[in-house]
Amino acid sequence: MSVVSAPASVRNKTPSELDFEATPKTVKPSQDIISLQAKQAELSSLVINQQKISNLPVKEPPIFSGDYFEYPAFVTAFDSIICSNVPSNKDRLYFLEKYTTGKANQVVKGFLAMNSERAYERARNMLDHRFGNPVHVAEAYKTSLRRWPKIDDGDSRSLQNFSDFLVRCEEAMKAMQSMGDLDSTENLRLVSSKLPSYAAVKWCRHAHETQTKYKKIVKFGALVNFVREEAELANDPVSSPDSLKAERKKTGTQPKWGWRNKSKKNDDSSWSSNSFATSSTPPVSSPKQQADQSDQTCPLCIGRHALVKCGKFLKKPVDERSEFIRTKVVAHSLAAGSTNVITNCRIIQVILFHKNNPEKTAKVYALLDDASDTTFVTTQVQHKLGINGVQTSLDLSTMFGRQRIAVKRIDGLVVERLDKRTEVELPKTYARQTIPSRRDQILRPETVTSWPHLKRIEGKIPPYDDDVAIGLLIACNCPRAIKPVEVIRGKGEEPYAVQTLLGWSIVGPVAASDTSKDGHALDSTCHRVMTREVISGPSDSANQLSFVFHGKTKEVINSLALNQMFELDFVEDKTRSKQSLSQEDRKFIEIAEKGIKHLKDGHYELPLPLKNATIELPNNKTAALRRLSQLKRRFEDQGGQKYSADYMEFLKKLIKNGYAEKVPKMSQSENTPRVQIKEKRNVWYIPHHGVYHPKKPNKIRVVFDCAAEFEKAMFHQVKVDEEYRDLLRFLWWENGDLTKSPREYRMTVHLFGANSSPGCANFTLKSTANDFENEFGASAADFLRNDFYVDDGLKSVPLVDDAVKLIVNVKKMCSRGGFRLHKFVSNGKEVIRRIPEQDRADGVKELDLDLDSLPLERALGVHWCVESDCFQFTIVLPDKPCTRRGILSTVSSIFDTLGFVAPLLLDGKSILQELCRHEIGWDDPVPDNVKAKWEKWRADLLKIQRISIPRCYKPNSFGRVMNAQLHHFSDASVKGYSHSSYLRLVDETQTVHCSFVMATSRVAPLKPVTIPRLELTAAVCSVRISQQLRQELELTIDQEYFWTDSRVVLGYIANESRRFHVFVANRVQEIQENTCIDQWKYIESKQNPADEAPCGLKTQELLNSRWLSTPAFLWKNEAQWQTISEEDHQLQESDPEVKRTVAMATTTSAQGTLIPSEKPSLVERVEYFSDWYRARRAVALCQSYVRILRDLVLKNHKKQCIHEKKTSTRRQ
Known about the structure:
By secondary structure, the chain is an alpha+beta fold. Among the domains are: 70-132, no CATH class; 136-235, no CATH class; 297-322, no CATH class; 341-513 and 526-532, Cathepsin D, subunit A, domain 1 (Beta Barrel), CATH 2.40.70; 616-664 and 681-753, HIV Type 1 Reverse Transcriptase, Chain A, domain 1 (Roll); 884-1120, no CATH class. It contains 39 helices and 35 strands. The strands form nine sheets. It has a ten-stranded mixed sheet with strand order 8-7-2-3-10-4-9-6-5-14. It has a five-stranded mixed sheet with strand order 31-30-29-32-33. Strand 7 and strand 8 (423-425) form a beta hairpin. Helix 4 crosses helix 6 (117-131). It is globular and about 140 Å long. 23% of the residues are buried. Residues 1-29, 252-295, 330-341, 513-524, 535-555, 574-578 and 707-712 have low confidence and may be disordered.
């Protein structure tokens, strides 16, 4: 029902008043009638307007899903349409829930159950905070601007869309301060790169003229105005270049439209994007086909004629006809079930090879089919790669039924992208004669140009190669190869593009055609294949293999463990600083000390440190034989000749060098399990296999199952007690003869990478140092004891003669223990000259030390430029997906134990922590705003290769050190906290030199922590690093200072009377136990180098910061250092970390009675609680207790009344 309101002049009058209103005497009757008619006309007009409004569609605000772009418009529409007409907040909340969806709806739903007027206000405030934050909106604009595709020449529609978006950005920039960086040179260059080539050139000239001629700075607003003018010109219906081109085409020769010319019958391309094929001779068709064509319906005007005969269609410009064909005709043909449609499926050109012979490759078209569960390759490709395969049978299930076929199984195939950026190892693959497919379904570059939404991948499609066969079908049992990385969706029936690790493919109808090159236009293909491998033989039931899924492992990362890693400094662990040995460590040392023997040949012998020496092991020889038979089959494969030869040679050397031996022969009665148990002689057989290092394809490593992946020859120098060698048995063919039965061998040395091997080798190395220290000196012994990590040693000495002497003594000491120390490298060429060539590292053996530069070496994970004697970074970022798992892998791959680039890595850790905070899945795609931050940080990470840090703490020209000081700086922010340490040296001429020593940076924990607590945690890190540096630095430290810009922390440390809460108390105690208050100094934030890290730095900022160059004031005399007195950082009594003391006071009167002290108020009682919920629970308990007491008093009162009543009744 519509309501019409009368004009103000009529609104308060009755109908009688309207009809019979008194007329003044001065007004004529005719004027009265005219006035009355005007009022009636006005009223009728209002009624008509109201009826028109009621006939319009109902006004509704748009539905908001959580898009930052749409929130301002949604709020405006909601306030105008809903809030202005709905007075109740409860009803407004209902409408707010109705017109939101997705993330926004989840926010609103949480307030529906409150049923209060304030619920709507809180919901709106939450939406404003989540989606109306100016920073979020600004970042969304910037991200969209960065991802905007480049506009092609002649694409006027895209240019107009880009102009409209830039206008939106400009308006947002005026309202939001965070958008100001759009005026930067980098952003202007980015935006101009999106323009068509002709417009970009014009803009460059315009910008250059503005800067040089008018002396003005080019800003974002000028670029927006320029793009808007270009878009208006490009879309002008009269004077735009596109309209002129269309007019020229109209006036030119009109082609006769029809089917393709016979000469182009064998052309692989489909309909062109700019013109249609012409022909004067129509194709030969049967009478029935001609009749069918005469009955066609025109898709444009719905007339009974073909589209090529439609006058309305022929009057259209060429561009509009082309667009109509692409978007309407192809989709209409597909929907009608027409066979005259070329459809593309996921066929990609790749490179195929076998992992044992990567040099021999074959280009093939691979069909990615997620409807099949088995991967196939054609026999033609198999023979081209020279692979034999293993004969087997398959139970093949298709739409036509089930049959058993003979095939060959191939293991170890690898498929690689054409640009060789990514390779994927295929599961077991089966060879067949052909793979059902159609060549017209192969993607061609010209297909992409026909569809506007696919143009951005035009340069990523390789050209069609008629000589390459469709020779591979990759099924869903290889998800890594077929899993979509990105999808470009089309509209309606348009084709869509899918990107996988192997490249791009297009799925769907792409063009209309009556035939294809290979004559399969009317063929229909359906790939749905299920297989089961069987063993050929006479009996089906006896030879069928039970199907077992191939078990692959993926690291399961515990989110809780990752969060704990970020919060190690916030765990109340009182035993952190106490280093103690576990029970297993003590037991290992006890076994090693008792069982170690120094043999006559110089080697040491240690027993196996078994956890349980009385364990009885089962007989696993059958399992070892089964594994050996699998190894034999691999040797006999056609592609296994090299693998077999390398394997044989390795085992031959192993046995020849005495690292393994034949098991001594025993009588049959002695070799029974019963006798072994009686004599407590355990036997265990260890399976083995071979692997190749990716960087050393010609060097095999024979790996035992209890071993690590790579050989550590150091372990071979430590022998195993003969009593334990039967636990290290393995099976092998004598002299490598596979025709003979395998013999039993056993290892005489410790195995590669067994859990006990590193400990045994390290214990032996230290025993060597202890046993021969008197003979070769303390320097060599200290080198072995303190400067070795497994089998790598690192030492720095001041003089060449000292270095040579140390090398000679250490080599002799190691040889007495059965070890050979070699692969030496030094930054001093004179030292290298005096080292025998066979003992030099591989990179310096062939160098001409007079002409060549020393190479880049890797020392304990850090790259060391030997020539310049500097530490450097070599970054090779793996191609990881942008997921939480991929980000963790990339961040963890940067090895920076000394903290050179800690401020840069803190940003990467912050991104990872943000994903943890939002509980993003390990393999889920990350949000767009986080992805933009990650890609920016990842690109900046490559620039750290410019960083070079001198290895030596003092320059060569520096004099004798007279004073050495360690300075530790700490700081914290909401984002994280950091520490950095510097060494300050002073020589006899009072020359000062400062150098970076070590630093750390860590993100703040997920649970909110106050800034003073973070600052205190950073100070504790300084103390712990100080203890570590004093142990590791071979320097006498004269003074040590700790600097912080937090007066609160200094107040905590200087406190001696007040008590703190547990968190602060534990850390203050650790600081006071290891440092003195006089060592702690105050520094302003602008001078604090540790202030650089908590906010994060980019690479260029890091190079120009105080982080690596040390603070400027340390280079000055100590008298010029600015310090403050202790009174300036006194602890405040109101500090929340200070425990409040409560004194209970009572007084007595003259008669000796107690007079209670004044009772605290309710407010003071509530202040005792640090948490609101605890206070509320305490008040509730008090109220409940009062209620119980009141009920008890009433109950007693009733009993007393009843008793008195009964007593009075008895008296009466």
